[in-house]
Design a protein that fits this description.
Distance between the termini: 36 Å
CATH architecture of the largest domain: 3-Layer(aba) Sandwich
Bound molecules: cobalt (II) ion
CATH topology of the largest domain: Beta-carbonic Anhydrase, Chain A
Number of helices: 10
CATH superfamily of the largest domain: Carbonic anhydrase
Helix content: 40-55%
Number of domains: 2
Length: about 220
């Protein structure tokens, strides 16, 4: 694992390499950012937003926190969403959770870890509300994956009910919210088919996504 001095040296090499391939790259980016997507993902070191979908700097506006949550009283995340939707006018908000998430595991086990327990409390409540579905999945690994998926679906719902997004949709803004889950074990992103937009029946889409996630976990 590189130490900070090595990271600075790596940075020099990277910047030089980028300029060799595209001499105008940094000058262009310095003028403005115009990303089409806001990414809300987990802080986990194994889930670097731009890298796993292979896009260069300038393409995705990123917010990350423990277990990729959108909580209505979190001024940080809410400010990111407001800036992305109202100022950058992004077209897509991508909620990307992941399997093998420590935050999901901590919430699922409902053990004491300190201050972070407060942050994870919404997930503890979410899993409690889906207890029959979760208890029906006998395989521990698959149940934990389902918990990651339910977490993403809930965050998609939470984004859709922010004042920022509701106002954008009432103005007719072209904005869609997507729920994805990334598997750190194979590098693949799965679409949970919970895409919400200005014209979708959001409650129906969310309920169907929850049901399908539960059914898929039972079958596997
Ligand atoms: Co995580």
């Amino acid at each position: 694992m590189p130490d900070p001095a090595e990271m600075l040296a790596n940075n020099r090499l990277w910047a030089r390499d980028v300029v060799e391939r595209d001499p105008d790259f940094f000058h262009r980016l310095a003028e403005q950012q115009a990303p089409d997507c806001l990414w809300i993902g987990c802080s986990d070191s194994r889930v670097p937003a731009t890298q796993i979908v292979d896009v260069p700097p300038g393409e995705i506006f990123v917010h990350r926190n423990v277990a990729n949550q959108v909580i209505h009283s979190d001024l940080n995340c809410q400010s990111v969403i407001q800036f992305a939707v109202d100022v950058l006018v992004v077209k897509h908000i991508l909620i990307c959770g992941h399997y093998h998430c420590s935050g999901i595991a901590a919430a699922a086990e409902n053990e004491r870890h300190g201050l972070v327990d407060h942050w994870l409390r919404n997930l503890v409540d979410l899993f409690e509300s889906h207890r029959p579905m979760l208890d029906a999945v006998k395989d521990d690994k698959r149940r934990r994956q389902l918990q990651s998926e339910l977490g993403v679906i809930q965050q998609v719902s939470n984004v859709s009910t922010t004042t920022t997004v509701r106002d954008a949709w009432s103005r007719g803004q072209d904005l869609h919210i997507h729920g994805w889950v990334y598997d750190v074990a194979d590098g693949l992103v799965k679409d949970l088919k919970v895409t919400l937009g200005p014209d979708s029946d959001n409650a129906a889409v969310i309920n169907q996504a929850i049901r399908k996630a539960g059914e898929a976990a039972l079958k596997e």
